[in-house]
Known about the structure:
- One of its GO terms (biological process) is endoplasmic reticulum to Golgi vesicle-mediated transport.
- Residues 40-263 form the L-type lectin-like domain.
- By secondary structure, the protein is of the alpha+beta class.
- The chain has helices at residues 8-33, 279-306, 322-371, 382-415, 422-447, 449-453, 474-503, and strands at 39-42, 48-49, 63-67, 70-71, 76-79, 86-91, 99-109, 118-124, 141-148, 160-167, 182-187, 197-204, 207-213, 224-229, 239-245, 252-264.
- The strands form 2 sheets. Strands 1, 2, 4, 5, 7, 12, 13, 14 and 16 form a 9-stranded antiparallel beta sheet that branches. A 7-stranded antiparallel beta sheet has the order 3-6-15-8-9-10-11, with no helix packed on it.
- α3 (322-371) runs antiparallel to α4.
- The protein is flat and about 135 Å long.
- The termini are far apart.
- 21% of the residues are buried.
Amino acid sequence: MAAVSVPKGSLLVLFCLACRLLRAADATGQAEKGPLLPHRRFEYKYSFKGPHLVQADGSVPFWAHTGNAIPSADQIRITPSLKSQRGSVWTKNKSIFEYWEIEVTFRVTGRGRVGADGLAVWFTEGQGLDGPVFGAADNWNGVGIFFDSFDNDAKKNNPAVVIVGNNGKLNYDHQNDGSTQALASCQRDFRNKPYPVRAKIIYYQKILHVLINNGFTPDRDDYEFCAKVENMVLPSQGYFGISAATGGLADDHDVLSFLTFQLTEPGKVAPAPDTEIPEKDKEKYQEEFEHFQQELDKKKEEFQKEHPDVEGQIADDLFESVSDRELRQIFEGQNRIHLEIKQLNRQLDMILDEQRRYVSMVSEEISKRGTGVPGQQGQVSLQGFDTVVKTQEEVLRQVGEIRNSMGETLRLVSGVQHPGSAGAIYETTQHFNDIKEHLHVVKRDIEHLVQRNMPSNEKPKCPELPPFPSCLSTTHFFMFVAVQTVLFIGYIMYRSQQEAAAKKFF
């Protein structure tokens, strides 16, 4: 075969072409894998969660509450179940990130079949502290996710989740439940659920997703898709808030947690969090620390006055360490095993007594039958009784072995001093397995006891009944028949005479 010469320039072109193909293949593979997930960072200044939610002065750190909102240690009641109530909570600081994700856990409860008015989650350019739109201001610039529980337009499409965007110029359409302004919506019943309802709202790359956990399961990650809005432009910085309102009907609107996360595109550096705390917050935190320190000192002095004998000592015995708790649990388990083995030992003693009585009765029966008439019908053969005796002796032997095994197990359990001894636990387990096997053998022997008592070639026969003596002879029988015949003929003749005498009167 002749060799083919290729110019060097052509080789370079082929090499470059191959590199482009490899890059294209890598890009195609990356596209098939899907887009990269964003970086997710928790933002504590835009979040709240129990159980220590409220400070000493009744405020929520980094949040402002207005209207009828009532903060407590584990939740914020935005509105109580009273008529014509409004309330809201808003972050004190604007967000400094473009894309975000929030997880809201809330509970809407009421006595009525229908509730009102509803609850709203906000991201707006300004704080809507009070207003007619679910307790917040109208003409907002941003987005509101409304959990509307009252059917104003009578279309029977509530409770519903409605997404409404606003550029600061639109008035909310109350009469139509915002249907003319809704960007997306879904029907979800979020009232009176056994578990708190969870909503996850994600705004990333100008796409808004709303996911709902319907409150029928305690699983926090059990979300289902509700609505999606594409090409949505929101302010680059804004306030997060949550509000609620009641009307003629009323519900309790409770928010258990509001968690905010910053989303950053892959490859971009997230902005550094604030490292310096404002002076006002520093002074406030210092005052609170000093107040708690003073209360702790007072409680220490009171305790020392009430317990002078333990002054200067640390009451470590009031607390239980992890190793002590494990040791206590192991010893309690061994005590329970000890009691169970004692109970089994007593039961085995009872079984032994019963077996001995049974063997003695069988032996007495054998001695009695040995003196009787041999070959009598229905009598159990001596060979069968010997089999019974042997079987009972075997049972007694096995029960004795079980008793000895249980005694050995009891001794081992009582003698174990350190609960971490793996050898003692293994031996105890082995003895329990032996006990189980012996009990199965006893059960099997007792089940086949009757079959082993009788030889296979003999079957039990019922004794024949003795002849029943007859008390009526043949002579008496014929005399009885003759008397009955005479009486019957006499009765017929008497009836004929009576009928003939009756006919003479006609």
